[in-house]
Amino acid sequence: MSAVIDTRKLRKVYRVGAEDVVALDGVSVRVRSGESVAVMGPSGSGKSTFMNLIGCLDQPTSGAYFLEGQDVSHLHGDKLAEVRSRKIGFVFQGFNLLSRSSAAENVELPLTYSGVPHEERRERAASALKAVGLGHRMNHLPSELSGGQQQRVAIARALVNDPAVILADEPTGNLDSHSSEEIMRLFLRLNDERGMTIVIVTHEHDIANWTARIVTFLDGHVVDDRPSAQVAAARGSA
Ligand SMILES: Nc1ncnc2c1ncn2[C@@H]1O[C@H](COP(=O)(O)OP(=O)(O)OP(=O)(O)O)[C@@H](O)[C@H]1O
Ligand SMILES: [Mg+2]
């Protein structure tokens, strides 16, 4: 199958005062269409930096990044933003919903940016909310929804543009274990039924084990990249 994400020796150096912080130091990862991948590793190992780069939120210092075959590593500004809005769906730990907008309005937002007509926006937002089991909560404000429901609105928003990949940075970090499990079930259903490619950052093995593959970062390097069943077996015998 073709690679949706293909990074080659990706490097990211942040300049802080007079000091260089090497956040990523030569990361080469390929994610094929339809894969589900968990990104793990200790705090500061480069997980979010990696997600920001593959999500076209930031540019690498060096190295190449091909998104669906297109070299996007040298794009910046509006060009990068355009690729991002067409190809990437983001889900964050803190949901990042507009508090004064209804669930439906939140989900419509990415379509507003890409100039989809009003009527079609409504329909697509409704169908995305139905897909995450919130067809009956379209007019609720975020404050009128549970944490798990708010994250499902965020997932509907990520889906509505039919992106090449969904990137989620600690999507269950603010949820209890029951809601976390619901969210992972939803991600895996989207992966199974729609062939949606999914990359999820998590600190928890229980969450990572829902995915098929675990990529582990340490000090800006990938130190392990294996099927999650193998990682779980190795932990069990450790
Ligand atoms: N904007 C920035 N400016 C300077 N240094 C940064 C910046 N963002 C991240 N870093 C540094 O880069 C390294 C990697 O950070 P990153 O946020 O990618 O880690 P992480 O694996 O996501 O950690 P966590 O699990 O705590 O979220 C860290 O040493 C961090 O201090
Ligand atoms: Mg992080």
In brief:
This protein is an alpha/beta fold and 238 residues long. It is 37% helix and 28% strand.
**What's the total helix number?**
8
Ions and ligands: adenosine-5'-triphosphate, magnesium ion
CATH topology: Rossmann fold
Q: Name the shape in a single word.
A: globular
Amino-to-carboxy terminus distance: 33 Å
SS strand fraction: 25-35%
Rg estimate, integer Å: 18 Å
As a percent range, the share of helical residues equals 25-40%
> How many strands in all?
11
Protein topology:
Layout: E1 3-16, E2 19-27, E3 30-32, E4 36-40, H1 47-54, E5 62-67, E6 70-71, H2 77-87, E7 88-92, H3 103-113, H4 118-131, H5 147-159, E8 165-169, H6 177-194, E9 197-201, H7 205-208, E10 213-218, E11 221-227, H8 228-236
Parallel strand pairs: 4-9, 4-10, 7-8, 8-9
Antiparallel strand pairs: 1-2, 1-3, 1-5, 5-6, 10-11
The site of magnesium ion has 2 residues, from helix 1.
Question: What does this protein structure show overall?
Answer:
This protein has a single domain (about 5-235), classed as P-loop containing nucleotide triphosphate hydrolases (Rossmann fold), CATH 3.40.50. It is built from eight helices and eleven strands. The two termini are about 35 Å apart. Helix 6 links the parallel strand 8 (about 165-170) and strand 9 (about 195-200). The protein has helices at about 45-55, 75-85, 105-115, 120-130, 145-160, 175-195, 205-210, 230-235, and strands spanning about 5-15, 20-25, 30, 35-40, 60-65, 70, 90, 165-170, 195-200, 215-220, 220-225. The chain is of the alpha/beta class and about 240 residues long. The strands form two sheets. Strands 7-8-9-4-10-11 form a six-stranded mixed beta sheet, sandwiched between helices. Strands 1, 2, 3, 5 and 6 form a five-stranded antiparallel beta sheet that branches. The mean pLDDT is about 95. Helices cover about 35% and strands about 30% of the residues. Helix 3 packs parallel to helix 5 (about 145-160), helix 4 (about 120-130) crosses helix 5 (about 145-160) and helix 5 (about 145-160) runs parallel beside helix 6 (about 175-195). Bound molecules: adenosine-5'-triphosphate and magnesium ion (MG).
